[in-house]
């Protein structure tokens, strides 16, 4: 098993690169799409899908490739990870998200420290974040280990389009994206609500997962008795 510093380093670097992919592809897409938001979102989606798949494949064996406080919290609640690691994971995830935004601004010759003016608020978007986060966590918990990277990437790609919020599904992503006044940004005042509803989505996913797991165990037990 990798040491805690190694895992924290992987979470920091992975989260930083994830935010760089999301924000950077949004900047590039906005620059090239000539005001066509649909084309920009397609480009943003594809870059995120491909990038997320690669990041999970690379960092999954090291840290679990959470890149997401809701995922880490869920693993702690399920006793798959020590509670003492929760705070260090959250700190490096948030730090990585911040520096991911800064990295994009450096690459595109933008003002390094900025704040988004893009409003993302209202019950429609908040409901979208519940759905996006619950779905993401269910995929992570229920997918076979060898398929999780592809399934997570595919789910996020789909959720970019079928959720009203374009599927942040990640408090660290919301935190980092407030520091970029670009296509992928979110106004700082809208971040707290996003985080709250992402956590609600994560808790909903845990309830569903426990329900499905209990039913699956019951069915398996009955089948074994019948076979005997």
Describe the structure.
This protein has 228 residues and is mainly α. The chain has helices at residues 4-32, 37-63, 69-77, 86-107, 123-142, 148-162, 171-177, 191-227. The chain has eight helices and no strands. Helix 5 packs antiparallel against helix 6. The chain starts with a helix and ends with a helix. The relative contact order is 0.16. Mean pLDDT is 94; it is low at 217-221 and 223-227.
Number of H- or I-type helical stretches: 8
Q: Please report which band the strand proportion falls in: under 5%, 5-15%, 15-25%, 25-35%, 35-45% or over 45%.
A: under 5%
Q: Which homologous superfamily in CATH is the superfamily?
A: Glycerol uptake facilitator protein
Helix content: over 70%
Number of distinct beta strands: 0
Class by SSE composition: mainly alpha
Structural domains: how many: 1
End-to-end CA span: 39 Å
Rounded Rg = 18 Å
What is the helix/strand order? HHHHHHHH
Biggest sheet overview: none
> What's the CATH first level?
Mainly Alpha
Low-confidence stretches: 217-221, 223-227
